[in-house]
């Protein structure tokens, strides 16, 4: 466990001037910012805890703003408690729904939960309530985070389950053991190639967009770090580093 000393202020004017001149800073010379991030959910956070769409965008945004990100893979509830007690400088991939008096960044990554079915089934799923007609496997705690309408459907559903390992959702769907799976579209796609060879993953699927997109922010205890992150995020969007990260993990630009 590191010894928390609080975030060191970045000299934004100097950093921006250096960035404009094309100067490159070694990561080890930058002041460290310790952040909590969630448990692995590829491709957003890879199993190694040192790569992923979410991880890389945040790391590059902070670097462009003058900080070195040191990430700690933690359950969100624990990370939030550590943030509130001053043991972390910030957290990644959250919404302002967590409350508190800390400083939230601009949106930097977008999650998209969907209901996924096999295309050949031609299931009619146009709204959350339509899920009541089918067997459903969702990610763990989906009934807590996908809103009141979804929670109501899940609570009264006779064939509904939540699974801690999202790869299991893919397996159940492609093997015909469940009608619909609920989870993030990119996470579903990532696990397709991780299934056993005997499972037919070439079956076409339909993504039913019955949930709104969920933009995610980072949050920091120091407003100067928040400002540096936002400035860095703007910089990597303009110089195509952001697009390159997205292409690396999902093969297309936003």
UniProtKB/TrEMBL annotation:
Source species, domain of life:
Bacteria
Family annotation (Pfam families): SBP_bac_3
- Whether Aminoacyl-tRNA synthetase counts among this entry's keywords is no
Instruction: Please report the stretch or stretches of sequence annotated as the Solute-binding protein family 3/N-terminal domain.
Output: 32-253
Key words, A-Z? Signal
Q: Which residues form the signal peptide?
A: 1-26
Entry keyword annotation includes Signal: yes
Query: Which InterPro entries does the entry link to?
Result: Solute-binding_3/MltF_N
Q: What is this protein called?
A: Transporter substrate-binding domain-containing protein
Organism of this sequence: Pseudoduganella ginsengisoli
């Amino acid at each position: 466990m590191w010894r928390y000393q609080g975030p060191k202020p970045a000299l934004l004017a100097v950093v921006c001037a250096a960035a404009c001149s094309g100067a490159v800073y070694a990561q080890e010379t930058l002041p460290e910012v310790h952040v909590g991030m969630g448990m692995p959910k590829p491709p957003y956070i890879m199993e190694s805890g040192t790569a992923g769409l979410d991880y890389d965008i945040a790391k590059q945004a902070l670097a462009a703003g003058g900080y070195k990100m040191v990430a700690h893979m933690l359950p969100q509830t624990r990370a939030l408690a550590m943030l509130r007690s001053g043991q972390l400088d910030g957290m990644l991939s959250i919404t302002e729904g967590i409350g508190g008096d800390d400083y939230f960044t601009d949106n930097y990554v977008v999650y998209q939960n969907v209901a996924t079915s096999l295309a050949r089934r031609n299931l009619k799923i146009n709204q959350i309530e339509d899920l009541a007609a089918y067997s459903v496997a969702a990610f763990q705690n989906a009934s807590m985070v996908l809103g009141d309408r979804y929670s109501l459907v899940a609570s009264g559903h006779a064939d509904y389950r939540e699974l801690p390992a999202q790869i299991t959702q893919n397996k159940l769907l492609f093997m015909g053991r469940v009608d619909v799976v609920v989870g993030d579209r990119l996470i579903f796609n990532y696990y397709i190639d991780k299934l056993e060879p005997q499972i037919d993953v070439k079956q076409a699927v339909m993504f039913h967009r019955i949930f709104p997109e969920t933009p995610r922010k980072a949050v920091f205890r120091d407003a100067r770090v928040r400002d540096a992150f936002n400035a860095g995020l703007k910089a990597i969007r303009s110089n195509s580093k952001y697009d390159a990260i997205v292409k690396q993990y999902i093969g297309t630009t936003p």
